[in-house]
Amino acid sequence: MHMAYHIMDDRINKVLDKSDNLDLLNDFFSENDSVYSYMGIKITKFSRGHCELEIPYSEKLLRAGKVLHGGMIMAALDYAGGLTTMTFNDGNDQVTQEIKINFLNPMYRGPFKITTDVIKAGKTAVVVELKLYDADGKIGTIALGTWYIIRDRIIQKK
Predict the structure, then answer these.
(1) Count of domains for the chain
(2) What share of the chain is helix, strand, coil (3-state, %, to 5)?
(3) Is residue 114 within 8 Å of residue 46, measured between CB atoms?
(4) Containing domain of residue 67, as a range?
(5) Do 68 and 112 meet the contact criterion of CB atoms below 8 Å apart?
(6) What's the CATH code of the domain at 130?
(7) Would you say 116 and 129 are in contact if contact means Cβ atoms under 8 Å apart?
(8) pLDDT-derived band of residue 17, with 50, 70 and 90 as boundaries?
(9) Domain for residue 157, yes or no?
(10) Is the CB of residue 43 less than 8 Å from the CB of residue 25?
(11) 102-147 pLDDT, tens per residue?
(12) What is the largest CA-CA distance in the chain?
């Protein structure tokens, strides 16, 4: 089975060039990533080794029982960890290698906040701790993810 991903040329540098202007950074992702746009994610802090995102409370992100859907949480954590990894990425691209998540509490009071911190940045892998909180500051998930730095190629759709 062959996996192919489509990326924009020089995506990492395009993101990092906007890192000091959160409005430009959020506009970039809203215009170029339909899942990011659908979820209404907003980057609220972006610095080397640390990132914070906000997810609005929205009916379209909920499962039965009116709580934030676990798949939506995982997607948002993947964005947050990927963004945080970009702050250490000196290669050509990156991909999510794995994310291990613990769902601790149902999340139903938004907006929701994600915080990330790089735990270790190696030559080929960056390990990031990710946490999601509700509007009251109650923790909903804690996760540990690894992003693989690609240095010898750019992954693109064939």
Answers:
(1) 1
(2) 30, 35, 35
(3) no
(4) 11-150
(5) yes
(6) 3.10.129.10
(7) yes
(8) confident
(9) no
(10) yes
(11) 999 999 999 999 999 999 999 999 999 999 999 999 999 999 999 9
(12) 46
Token pair listed for 49: 């080794």
Q: Which residues in 38-124 belong to E strands, given as ranges? A: 42-47, 50-55, 62-63, 67-68, 93-103, 112-121
The answer to the question of residue 107 being in a domain is yes
- What are 33-79's pLDDT values in tens digits? 999 999 999 999 999 999 999 999 999 999 999 999 999 999 999 99
Q: Tell me the CA end-to-end span of the chain in Å, nearest whole number.
A: 14
Task: At 2, list the tokens.
Answer: 């062959």
Q: What is the token pair recorded at 115?
A: 């915080």
Is 158 part of any domain?
no
Q: What's this model's pTM, rounded to 2 decimal places? A: 0.86
